[in-house]
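User: Is it possible to get a 3D structure for a protein together with its bound compound? The compound here is nicotinamide-adenine-dinucleotide. I've pasted both below.
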Amino acid sequence: MLKPLSPYDRAMRFVHEAFDRLKLSKTERAMLGKPRNMVTGDVTFKRDDGTSMTVHGYRVQHSNARGPYKGGIRYHPDADIEEVKALATLMSIKNAVVGIPFGGAKGGVQVDPKLLSAAELQRMSRAYMRLIADHVGPDIDIPAPDVNTNAQIMAWMRDEYETIKGVYAPALITGKPLSYGGSVGRDKATARGAFLVLSELASIEALDMRSLRVAVQGFGNAGSEMAVFLHNAGATVVAVSDSHGGIYSKSGLDPIRIRREKNKTGSIRGMYCEGSVCDVQRMKHDDAKIITNEQLLELDCDVLIPAALDNVIHAKNAAKIRAGIILELANGPVSPEADEILNKRGVIIVPDVLANAGGVTVSYFEWVQGRSGNEWTGERVESELSRIMLRAFEQVRAEAKRKKLSLRQAAFNIAVQRIVEAVRVRGWTG
Ligand code: NAD
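Assistant: Yes, that's possible. Here is the predicted structure of the complex:
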């Protein structure tokens, strides 16, 4: 039996296909074909009972041809080197698609953070920063939050870095709290960027937003904000889910209330909300029924938004997907095999490297503010985000049309070309 592809193999499949389409030389491929640097090591910290715990930590720096390395830090039991390499590669592509002056990186700690107290989480986050401190910096590599990390964790990491180095470094890390160098608009940026792209796509396809039925898998930061944007624009959010399962209502759910109730009823262990969307009280309100995460993906709807995990749409379920549009808010939710099957069926897939790039775009604004000492207004953040996202979408759509490619193929073409051009002018190819 064939060994299943690793997350890195899946990401590299899309990159290698772009290499072939663009007929890149061996030297050019080598510059992008593997990460430039990998930091791995033990992250050791004290538990509350006085014992010590050691977990694996990683920072993968894929490319800095276009600017400093940039990418989030994930805390997850599955965050191994293969996953972190894949996510670092996708960051290089994403930053080039939207044309912001960063390369790509990603960090990970292989741990279930829900098993730690808040104090243990702080000690682990500081220990992780000690592991990577010599490899990051405002001009070198700028980390940010990702799955299971948040503004508070970024604040601890910045503080640890500033203590170790004896410097003031607001531009070291993005996704910080507003009271400690964060940017307005970062919390909603990923969903706002995706919503802008979907609205533009709908208008091009002559679809009325108010007639769209949407299913969202994952009701976290990105997914819940996206559901609220869609609801406010008049779309019908027919299903949402989280790790506990999902709910479906043909007439539509109210994501604002679901979020409020989830926050209210969710118990807090450590720093993580453990509540679920499957709340009996709420289901009564919305005339909803319980569905599984697998059923959610196969629902009869117009737009499907995977906003939780990677590889959820694969060769085995691709044929069962009924949505006409898939908007990838999660990183890597559609496998290369499923991508091929869905493209053949004419399903429009807005790829992760475009759809969820709003988050890193506002992180770029936060970095600019950190470096200059100026604070941007919410209006400025929104209007600049809109300009960058719509410009990227237009460029990707034009490339797709010109070369008869899917949006993903077009996005990878543009990104790889931009990175290769930077490599070339810097003289790295000899
Ligand atoms: P999050 O931790 O806030 O939310 C994740 C959500 O997914 C939670 O509701 C969780 O319950 C749910 N979930 C977990 N396991 C699940 C399962 N098996 N089935 C269904 N749902 C499940 O994370 P987030 O920040 O919203 O990120 C979600 C995805 O979006 C990730 O792939 C992340 O890399 C990507 N992303 C997020 C941002 C951002 O700014 N938040 C930016 C770019 C990409």
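Residues 267-271 have pLDDT under 50 and may be disordered. The first helix runs from residue 7 to 21.
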